[in-house]
Amino acid sequence: MLRVENLDVYYGAIHALKGISLELNEGEIVTLIGANGAGKTTTLQTISGLIRPKNGSIIFKDQDLTHKPAQDIVKLGISQVPEGRRVFANLTVAENLEMGAYLRKDKEGIKATLEKVYASFPRLRERVNQRAGTLSGGEQQMLAMGRALMSQPTLLLLDEPSMGLAPILVQEIFTIIQEINKAGTTILLVEQNAHMALSIADRAYILETGRIVASGAAKELAESEQVKKAYLGG
Length: 234
Description:
- This protein has 234 residues and is α/β, with parallel strands linked by helices.
- It is 38% helix and 26% strand.
């Protein structure tokens, strides 16, 4: 479904991604784990067209995305939930969700998607007219995910969905991620909570200073002594 090959990304003189290659098959949850500054967010932003790579290619469903503008990438079925949620604080919950469908013209289809989002996130329905900036951190995360789903993506890029959330909310968000995946959306998950990420993922890639240093089945990596020491506090 998605194939990233030999991706090089620079921030000025800083070589942020060094020949990264990874792939996602339809229906999978794949996670990228690594320390702060490893290149996880840069990888997602490059896939979604917010950053241009110097070298390499990004192929999604046989289409080359490498130099496409971000809005065209959304049209093709890739949506990103950014790190830090980035909801529109002064807009209501309903208005934020409408923003997620801004490229769509099918009014009836948008209504149907909105109902699905409210079914996945009942708390958003309860707060439909509330300004997004007044929601709790967990509710804002749900809103950011709901907004991304409004474009009907076949691939969802999730950047640190558990950041800053209480443990009970982390569990809830990860359960919802699994439900979204079961409903047919492929997921690429960037997450500092490596333990949670590996517990729901099919496969994982481990990033260190812009390079992939390990990859494989998530369960196997979770059992690896090297991974336990570095990322799981083992």
